[in-house]
């Protein structure tokens, strides 16, 4: 069993899709190990997206992710990291995510792609520490 860090980003919360995302996680057979509604401060968002520092979209991304409440979750289960990435779909909701995925079903623009999921075991460990330091 492994753990992954999931965010329902501010667009997903604003649009009332928290329950939808959690339902898909649970139906997949994954378990919730932690869950919190919060508004991220800039330092947290910059740490979370440090790998993108310097890219053209970085400032917009940090503005967006700190712009309203989000839901942070730790999701646990066998193959939890790739399993949630599969549920999320590709980064671009139209060009990459297919119907049946969260982004494919509910998203259009790349910045407003509803959810985040850790992309590797190393990322998951790093990100869980950022969002849930006491876990
Ligand atoms: P996350 O789960 O959020 O990390 O998405 P990802 O792993 O599918 O994509 P990646 O880590 O490459 O990018 C992080 C986030 O930056 C994406 O989810 C998008 O919200 C945003 N992003 C990525 N590429 C672009 C881009 O070309 N333009 C804009 N505006 N945003 C982008
Ligand atoms: Mg990523």
Describe the overall structure.
It contains 7 helices and 4 strands. With 135 residues, it is α+β, with helices and mostly antiparallel strands. It has a single domain, classed as Alpha-Beta Plaits, CATH 3.30.70. The radius of gyration is 14 Å and the shape is globular. It starts with a strand and ends with a helix. It binds guanosine-5'-triphosphate (GTP) and magnesium ion (MG). Guanosine-5'-triphosphate binds at residues 52, 57, 60-61, 91, 110-111, 113, 116-117, 119. It catalyses: a ribonucleoside 5'-diphosphate + ATP = a ribonucleoside 5'-triphosphate + ADP; a 2'-deoxyribonucleoside 5'-diphosphate + ATP = a 2'-deoxyribonucleoside 5'-triphosphate + ADP. One of its GO terms (cellular component) is cytoplasm.
Question: Keyphrases for this structure?
Answer:
four-stranded antiparallel β-sheet; 135 residues; binds guanosine-5'-triphosphate; Alpha-Beta Plaits
Major sheet characteristics: 4 strands, antiparallel
Instruction: Strand order, main sheet: write it out.
Output: 2-3-1-4
Can you identify the CATH superfamily? Answer: Nucleoside diphosphate kinase-like domain
Spatial gap, N to C terminus: 16 Å
Summed up, the helix count is 7
Ranges with pLDDT <50 over ≥5 residues? none
- Estimate nothing, just give the exact number of structural domains: 1
Taken from the alpha-carbon principal axes, the silhouette is globular
What is the succession of H and E elements? EHHEHHEHHEH
CATH architecture: 2-Layer Sandwich
- Average pLDDT number: 98
């Amino acid at each position: 069993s492994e753990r992954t860090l999931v965010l329902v980003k501010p667009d997903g919360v604003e649009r009332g899709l928290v329950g939808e995302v959690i339902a898909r996680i649970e139906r997949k057979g994954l378990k919730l190990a932690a869950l919190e509604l919060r508004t991220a401060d800039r330092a947290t968002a910059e740490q979370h997206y440090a790998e993108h520092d310097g890219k053209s979209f970085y400032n917009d991304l940090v503005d967006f992710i700190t712009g309203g409440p989000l839901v942070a979750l730790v999701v646990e289960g066998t193959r939890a990291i790739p399993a949630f990435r599969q549920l999320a779909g590709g980064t671009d909701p139209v060009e990459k995510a297919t119907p049946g995925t969260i982004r494919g079903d509910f998203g259009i623009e790349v910045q407003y792609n509803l959810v985040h999921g850790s992309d590797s075991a190393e990322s998951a460990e790093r990100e869980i520490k950022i969002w849930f330091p006491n876990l």
